[in-house]
Amino acid sequence: MTEQPRIGFIGLGNMGAPMCARLLNAGLTVYAYDIDAGRTDTAVAAGALAGDSACSVAQQADLLFTSLPRPDHVEAVMRDGGALAALRPGSGWVDLTTNRIELLKALADEAPTGVSVSDAPVTGAVDGARNGRLTLFLGGPSDLVARAQPVLENLGRVISCGRLGTGNVVKLVTNQLWFVHAAALGEGFAVGLSHGVDLDILWEAIKASVGDSFVAQHDAPSVFAGHYDPSFTLGLCLKDLGLTHELAGTVTADLPMTAAAHQAFTRAADRYGADAAELHVVRQIENDAGLDFRLPGDWTPHWEK
C-alpha cells in the first residue's frame, strides 16, 4: 500500500477550514496553520497537527496546500514569509487560491530545486467545501498533478486543465460567467415583478427553463432571505473581476458582458462597501427599482447545509 503524503494546509478561512476538515476526515495527516490562531486551534481540535508558522507547515509537508483570499496574501506567505523556500526537495505546492498567473509562474521559478508547483482554484461555495462537492481546476506538471489529484478528490471533482496557470484561467472564466449571471438575475427579477409576476412563480419558471443557472438554483435564496450571501464579499468579487480583466486584455475582441458585470459590481461596492455580501449586486437593482425581493421560506444559508 502506498504511504499517504503528509499534508500542509495554510489558510483556514470560509473555504479553507472546511477543505482542511475534509482531508482530516479522509484520514490524512494534516499540518495546519492560519494567521488567526483561533482558526488553527479549531483545526487542531478536529485532528490537525498545529503549525506555529507557515514555514513550519511547509517544512513538514509532502504536499502543501494554500487557500488564501488574494494574490498578495499568497506572495506574503510563500515569498516574503519564506514558506516556498522551506519546502523540501521532492515536495509539491498546490495553490487553491484564485490567483494571478504571472505570480504563480514567478513563484514556481523561485521554488527550491526538486519542488513542483500546481494551481487548483476551486468553485462550489462553502456548502460544496463542507460536503465534498467542489469542482477543482488543476493545472501544473504531470507528476505533481498525478500526486495531488487523489488527495484533491476528497474535496470534489478534479478537472485537469493543462500546464501551470490553466487552472486559474478556467476558474476565472467560470467566475466571469457567474458575475454576468448574478447581475442578470437581478435584472430579470426586476422586470418580472414590475409587470405583475409573483417572485416565487418567476423563480420556478426560470429554474424550469433556458434561463436556469447555478446562480438561480444556489444563490437566489440568499436574495430571498435578505442576507445576500456574506460568505463572499464584493471586494473579493472585484479582485476576481480584476484578474479576469487582465486575461481579457489579451483578447482582440470586445467583451461587453464582462465589462458590464465589472461595472455593476464596482457600483455595488461603491454604494454598499467592499465588505458587503456578494449579491448586493442584485440588491442595488432591487433598491433602485423600489422593489422587494424577499420571499417567505426556510432559506437555510448554504454554509450551514
What does this structure look like?
There is one protein chain. It contains 14 helices and nine strands. The protein is globular and about 65 Å long. It has two domains: about 5-165, Rossmann fold (3-Layer(aba) Sandwich), CATH 3.40.50; about 170-305, N-(1-d-carboxylethyl)-l-norvaline Dehydrogenase, domain 2 (Orthogonal Bundle). Helix 8 links the parallel strand 8 (about 135-140) and strand 9. It is of the alpha/beta class. The chain has a six-stranded parallel beta sheet, with helices on both faces. A three-stranded mixed beta sheet has the order 7-8-9. It has helices spanning about 15-25, 35-45, 55-60, 70-80, 85, 100-110, 125-130, 140-150, 165-195, 200-205, 215-225, 235-250, 255-270, 280-290, and strands at about 5-10, 30-35, 50, 65, 90-95, 115-120, 120-125, 135-140, 155-160.
Number of domains: 2
Q: Please report the first level of CATH classification, the CATH class of the largest domain.
A: Alpha Beta
Described by strand count, sense and barrel closure, the largest sheet is:
6 strands, parallel
What share of residues is helical? 40-55%
Distance between the termini: 35 Å
CATH architecture descriptor name of the largest domain: 3-Layer(aba) Sandwich
How many strands appear in the DSSP assignment?
9
- Supply Rg: 20 Å
User: For the residues shown, what is the average pLDDT?
Assistant: 97
Low-confidence stretches: none
CATH topology of the largest domain: Rossmann fold
Oligomer: single chain
Q: Total helix count?
A: 14
Shape descriptor: globular
Please list the strands of the largest sheet in the order they lie side by side: 3-2-1-4-5-6
Structural class by sheet pairing and helices:
alpha/beta
* Strand portion: 5-15%
* SSE arrangement, N to C: EHEHEHEHHEHEEHEHEHHHHHH
CATH superfamily of the largest domain: NAD(P)-binding Rossmann-like Domain
